[in-house]
Amino acid sequence: MKNEKSRILIVDLSKRHGGVDTRVIDIAVSLRDRCEVKVVVLQDSQVAKLLQRSGVETYSIKRRRHDPRIVLDIMQAARAFQPDVIDAHNPQSQLWGALAAKLSRVRTAVATVHSIYGVAHRGFLRQHAHEGVLHLCRMLGLRFIVVSKSIQVYLMSLGISPSRITLSYNGVPTQPYHSCERSIRRSLNIPDAQFLVGMVGRIQKVKGYDILVSAISRLRERGCYVQVVIAGEGTEEDELRRLIRESDLGSHIHFIGFRKDVASVMAEIDVLCMPSRSEGLPYTALEAASAGLPLVATRVGGIPEVFIDRETALLVAPNDVEAIADALEELSKDGMLRLRLGQSARDFIRSRLTVEQMVSETLAAYSVGR
Fold this sequence. Notes:
This protein has helices at 19-31, 46-53, 70-81, 91-104, 117-120, 124-139, 149-157, 183-188, 209-221, 237-246, 262-268, 283-290, 303-306, 321-333, 335-352, 355-367; strands spanning 7-12, 36-42, 58-61, 85-89, 108-113, 143-146, 165-167, 196-200, 227-231, 253-255, 271-274, 295-298, 314-316. It is α/β, with parallel strands linked by helices. The chain contains 16 helices and 13 strands. Helix 13 links the parallel strand 12 (295-298) and strand 13 (314-316). Helix content is 45%, strand content 16%. It folds into two domains: 7-171 and 354-367, Glycogen Phosphorylase B (Rossmann fold), CATH 3.40.50; 183-352, Rossmann fold, CATH 3.40.50. The longest helix is centred in the last third of the chain and has 18 residues, at 335-352. Helix 1 (19-31) packs across helix 16 (355-367) and helix 3 crosses helix 4.
């Protein structure tokens, strides 16, 4: 980067808060002392509110994110801000951001890819449309940041040169999570001694909530009774609630909605479960590890790149209900294993996957080609 402060325009047109937004917020906040940073967001979106609360300057767009006039909005922001770099996150942001960067002649344009679009997004047409965005970004000369090696391999399979791809794992703060109130347990009448499983994130098929429901049903058949809290919301919540009712698990699985205070949720559960069918490198898993919370997760995306089975997590194959049930039952009965897994994961995450490292790698990607 040049000696004077560079100007970074980040584009994040997310409607709901997720891992993409966590990285955007951490990058934007961390870069403020070194660069001038502005983030293009949808007006009144959750990420817009969180960025504004963090003191990050935003440019709000008052349109639906599929409206092609967003290209003009981003171009207007670019004319006013004169960015050295445009960094677009998620498919809609990358579609409009790439076009705006090209038309505005911004010197460096970057697409940060958080998942495998051909798997993570539901529906044949949507998957191929989102992959089409990646091809467009390639043709327009964008560079790419990926959050896992699995995504790097995926982009290469689409014909993107490895020389244009920078691997930058997500990083998390190192502050511990503490909770003395136990408010979630109290509100649900769950005793402190009751083994409590948590799932945190968007309620979508790709996250495997249905797999967890089936696993809890298996545990009940074995006489192993656990409680579950689901912290999140999404397009498939009604279907998930129906599945829980049909499985007669309403007294075992509880919805607590979208939570800004994920730290409080982490502090009250005994294990985080992530039975995902596809992932990039989920922030929720990293945050749990940083807090010393044991993890049960599937071997998908960046998870097996970071976590080692029976050393820092219990890892299972995707869509394996019995394996999820076995892992949860083992952890419910072995407090020493929970402690060992949590401590080992915390030590690794805090030494290797920091926000500082993520920011350094991101800046390096911004600098290439300048």
